[in-house]
Every structure is written in structure tokens, then in C-alpha cells.
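**User:**
Make up any protein.

**Assistant:**
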Amino acid sequence: MSLNFTPATGALAALDLLRVEIAGAVAHIRLNRPAKRNAVNDTLIAQLHSAFVSLPEAVKAAVLTGEGDHFCAGLDLSELSERSVAEGVLHSRTWHAAMDAIQFGRVPVVAVLHGAVVGGGLELASSCHIRVAEESAYYGLPEGQRGIFVGGGGSARVPRLAGVQTMTDMMLTGRVLDAHEGERRGLSQYVVANGAGFAKGCELAAKIAGNAPLSNFAVMQALPRIADLSQPDGLFVESLMAAIAQGDDAAKERVRAFLEKRAGKVGKAS
């Protein structure tokens, strides 16, 4: 799918380690450190946070990609070696704030993955809602071999996708998963041919942007929290969220459109 993206203006245009473009209701946010394999330094993590909290009101979904041959090779280790323990905690919390701005932000985010999705790159990808992997994508968590531990939210997010056992194996042994095994283990929902990821990501983002905003909000904000509750508590929160969503005017119009045969039925995915 092709969308007519144009460069963002204002504060978003000033983010020099990102390229932000807008096409109607879809934003394209691109990591822009290709010479460093899009490794994340302090400036980039701050700019990611700023970008996701500053998207224009008209934007209803976003696509996140990486410039060059790789999505993201993780933390820029050149900034790591001289931090104290206290500084390390604060640094980790800045990552948490940025990842929360993605996962629990205003719009659903589709990540398009290619090449390295390693360390902090996998943590970043795991904060997104949909992940499309090109066949070149590969996943690694090399922190165990480097004497460090994940600090960007990976220990809370990756096991929810792929399981504690998979993450343990990757961190202890340095095991690398290719795109297809990553999909089987839940690290992505789609695998496409090399070069086809962005079009697929745009197709999904455009579809998501066409949903009722409150439904998208419920999926992003309520669903992961319900999954962490006991079943009785989760079912009660589900009842509350279902009642709120179905009371929305946009939801009522969509139900009427379906009943009056003005909306299509669920069909087999292409």
C-alpha cells in the first residue's frame, strides 16, 4: 500500500535523529542513525519520547521503521561504560518512559522490522502493538554476553510475547532467532518478503486508523492490563470497558451500518 507522506512540521521536524512524515491519519516515524545501525543513544530515546507524545491530533496510527539495513541494533554502548549505579537507574527509567509513550500512548503503532532487531531494538519493537518482520530480520539479546542486563523494558515485555524460557535462552546463550522462528515464538505477527514490510505496515496502519478511536484505545490500554489481572477482576474490567465502548456515538453508528448492511462482514484475511 502506498501513502502520500510529507515531512512533519514544527517540533517534529526538529528531531534530527528521526524522520517524521505524515499521510492523513498515519504517521511514519523512522529511526535515522543508519551509520550506527540505528543504535539508540540518549538523544534518540529522548526524541522518540517527544515524537510519540507530540503527534498531531489528526494522526490515528503510526508506522515505526529504521533507516538503512537494520531496524535497530540496540543500546549505543559508547554511552554506557561510565555511568554510576544511580545514573544507570535513571537512564533505564528514561527508556521506560519512552516505551510507555509508545505502548500506552494515544495511537496504535506498527513496527516494520528488518535486519538487526537486537537488544534495545527488540525492547523497542516489543513496545509496539503490531510487528511486521521482513525475512532479513533477526532477533538477539546479547546483554548476557556483555555483562549487563536489559534496561529498556524488555524483561517486562519480551516474555509476554515469546515466553520467559525463550528470553532466558537468548540472554544466557546468545541465541539468535531468524524472522520465521521469531514469528512462531510471538515476536512478530507477520513475516513478509524483504522490501515489502513498509507497504504492509502502511496497509495495517491505515486499517487501524479507520477504527473507532475508543475501540483502539480499549485494545491498547485495557487489553494488556486485563491480561495481568485475575480472571474475575479481568472480566469485571472487560464489562466496564465494553459498556464504555459500545456507548460511544462512533460505535453506535458502526453497529447501525452493519445491521443495515452498509458495512462489510468479516472475511478471510489476505
